[in-house]
């Protein structure tokens, strides 16, 4: 059954999802603050800055009018960067239709409050509306979803019905959606993998090989899991699409903004120039700062995050950061297993 969907934001991922929803027969209105972008989408059926070469179906209408975007919307999809989520949510709240399902696709941790996006939502909209909140995450480059390349993601919500609603909304032969009740784990996995992608990019820029990348990804997943356990996530979530799945795709693909920025940093570009050269939001930079503070608050060791922070914000040379990681004191590889065991025992296979 066709749904009315309001999409807030017109970046690459919001555009790809708007196109997908329209192809599935839904009526989509996209809100942008840029009149020229609205004109281009409506007249040329393309978003050339963020998703060039991808045709946008007639079922997508763009507008600068926020109230019009949300009028009678049964689904509201927030497609803005994580640092803009609170501001846009505040603007949208007066117009959110009652009982609409809220989908958030931003991957990040708010820098000042250290809140995940669901916590930001609950603080602004109220705890009662959390049952309508769904985080959509997973290994999903907009450039590939826009070309109908088979993709699998996860819809996470404290309310199974809301997660299943989103599952039904998007499911098709090239876009598969799983559900997961662990919103904390799904949001953390989607956010923290960007830090590790910066690291693998830096390693590539330094001229290192596959061994280095595999080490960073594996040990990166270990510290992501440690922080996840400390904040109440189910560690098994990090073996899923929003954990290891998103980590793989973001750390290995040239579609990844974070990896591309990392490559430039590893090749010697100043951080500011490397980030600006990507020409889109590099979420991992802000997330590195937030995750470092969060790990200190939770007394969780995150050595890769720490060294990437020093490269980004303290001027540490990337090669020195790698040396510091390689010469850390000895430890046991399976230290995370003991922490995860109580969760694993609960799972009925």
Can you put this structure into words, describing what you see?
The chain is α/β, with parallel strands linked by helices and 349 residues long. It contains 16 helices and eight strands. It has helices at residues 12-23, 35-44, 66-70, 82-92, 117-125, 142-145, 160-170, 183-205, 210-230, 241-252, 257-266, 271-278, 283-298, 303-313, 318-326, 335-346, and strands at 4-8, 27-31, 60-63, 75-78, 101-104, 133-137, 151-156, 175-180. An eight-stranded mixed beta sheet has the order 3-2-1-4-5-6-7-8, sandwiched between helices. Helix 5 (117-125) links the parallel strand 5 and strand 6. Helix 8 (183-205) crosses helix 13 and helix 13 packs across helix 14 (303-313).
> What is the average per-residue confidence, as pLDDT, rounded to a whole number?
95
Q: Say how many strands there are.
A: 8
CATH class of the largest domain: Alpha Beta
Distance between the termini: 35 Å
Which descriptors would you attach to this protein?
globular, N-(1-d-carboxylethyl)-l-norvaline Dehydrogenase, domain 2, eight-stranded mixed sheet, 16 helices, alpha/beta, 349 residues, Rossmann fold
Show the helix and strand layout.
Blueprint: E1 4-8, H1 12-23, E2 27-31, H2 35-44, E3 60-63, H3 66-70, E4 75-78, H4 82-92, E5 101-104, H5 117-125, E6 133-137, H6 142-145, E7 151-156, H7 160-170, E8 175-180, H8 183-205, H9 210-230, H10 241-252, H11 257-266, H12 271-278, H13 283-298, H14 303-313, H15 318-326, H16 335-346
Parallel strand pairs: 1-2, 1-4, 2-3, 4-5, 5-6, 7-8
Antiparallel strand pairs: 6-7
């Amino acid at each position: 059954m066709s749904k009315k969907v309001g999409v807030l934001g017109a970046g690459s991922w919001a555009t790809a999802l708007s196109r997908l929803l329209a192809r599935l027969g839904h009526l989509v209105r996209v809100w942008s603050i840029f009149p020229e972008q609205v004109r281009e989408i409506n007249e040329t059926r393309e978003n050339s800055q963020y998703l060039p070469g991808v045709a946008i179906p007639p079922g997508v209408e763009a507008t600068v009018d926020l109230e019009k975007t949300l009028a009678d919307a049964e689904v509201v999809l927030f497609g803005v960067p994580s640092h803009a989520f609170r501001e846009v949510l505040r603007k949208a709240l007066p117009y959110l239709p009652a009982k609409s399902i809220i989908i958030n696709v931003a991957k990040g941790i708010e820098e000042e409050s250290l809140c995940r996006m669901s916590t930001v939502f609950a603080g602004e909209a109220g705890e009662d509306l959390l049952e309508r909140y769904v985080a959509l995450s997973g290994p999903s480059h907009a450039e590939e979803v826009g070309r109908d390349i088979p993709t699998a993601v996860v819809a996470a919500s404290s309310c199974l019905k809301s997660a299943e609603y989103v599952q039904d909304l998007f499911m098709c032969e090239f876009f598969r959606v799983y559900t997961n009740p662990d919103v904390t784990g799904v949001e953390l996995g989607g956010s923290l993998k960007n830090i590790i992608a910066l690291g693998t990019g830096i390693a590539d820029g330094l001229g290192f090989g596959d061994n280095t990348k595999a080490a960073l990804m594996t040990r990166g997943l270990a510290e992501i899991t440690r922080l996840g356990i400390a904040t109440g996530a189910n560690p098994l979530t990090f073996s899923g699409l929003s954990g290891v799945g998103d980590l793989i795709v973001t750390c290995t693909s040239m579609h990844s903004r974070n990896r591309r920025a990392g490559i430039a940093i590893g090749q010697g570009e100043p951080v500011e120039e490397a980030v600006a050269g990507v020409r889109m939001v590099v979420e991992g930079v802000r997330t590195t700062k937030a995750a470092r503070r969060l790990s200190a608050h939770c007394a969780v060791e995150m050595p890769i995050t720490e060294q990437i922070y020093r490269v980004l914000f303290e001027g540490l040379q990337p090669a020195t950061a790698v040396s510091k990681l390689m010469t850390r004191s000895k430890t046991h590889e399976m230290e995370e297993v003991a922490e995860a065991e109580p969760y694993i025992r609960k799972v009925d296979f």
